[in-house]
Design a protein that fits this description.
- It is a single chain.
- It contains seven helices and no strands.
- It has helices at about 15-30, 35-45, 55-80, 85-105, 110-125, 130-155, 160-170.
- The chain is elongated and about 60 Å long.
- The longest helix has 26 residues, at about 55-80.
- Helices cover about 75% and strands about 0% of the residues.
């Protein structure tokens, strides 16, 4: 093979589990007549490359979701008290710094990424008259996606999958 030729990439177990988790979120949410966007995002963030500790990585994501949601709610309310764009931007800065600090202080640095996503979704996407309901719905949706990823990570762990394929070959 020459340098210019490209191989077709192989899908790994994480890719397959991510596809299954997000599709399962979409199916559930469509069946209950809700938009699956944030549950699917939660499922993507909940999927780990190393599934030896799915509950630790999942708890990081759940804690990040909760922190980002509550910080977003509080700061969104304060942000809307001002019409000054500079003050509104300062709330974004303060919020992300608080999220990083609190996550690290609590011993969950892995919560920062997912928490930041929820924080920015709440801060930048919330209808002004729906602060609490919107934020809580985003936290729930993201948490559902993370929980589905944890479940798929456990069910489809390398250990379980090797047992399944070993039994199929015999």
């Amino acid at each position: 093979m020459t340098k210019n030729e490209k191989c077709v990439p192989k899908l790994g177990l994480r890719s397959i589990k991510t596809a299954i988790s997000t599709t399962l979120c979409a199916i559930i949410y469509i069946l209950i007549n809700r938009n699956p966007t944030f549950a699917c995002i939660g499922a993507v963030f909940g999927m780990e490359t190393n599934n030896e500790h799915p509950f630790k990585s999942g708890s990081n994501r759940l804690i990040g979701t909760i922190l980002g949601g509550f910080l977003g709610m509080g700061l969104f309310y304060l942000q809307n008290q001002s019409q000054n764009k500079l003050i509104q931007i300062l709330y974004l800065l303060v919020g992300i710094i608080l999220l990083i600090f609190i996550s690290q202080y609590l011993g969950y640095p892995g919560a920062i990424q997912g928490g930041a996503v929820v924080f920015y979704i709440v801060m930048l996407n919330t209808p002004a008259d729906q602060t609490v309901t919107y934020a809580i719905n985003r936290m729930i949706d993201t948490a559902v996606g993370v929980c589905i990823s944890i479940l798929i990570n456990v069910v489809m762990s390398r250990k379980n999958m090797s047992c399944v394929f070993k039994n199929i070959k015999e």
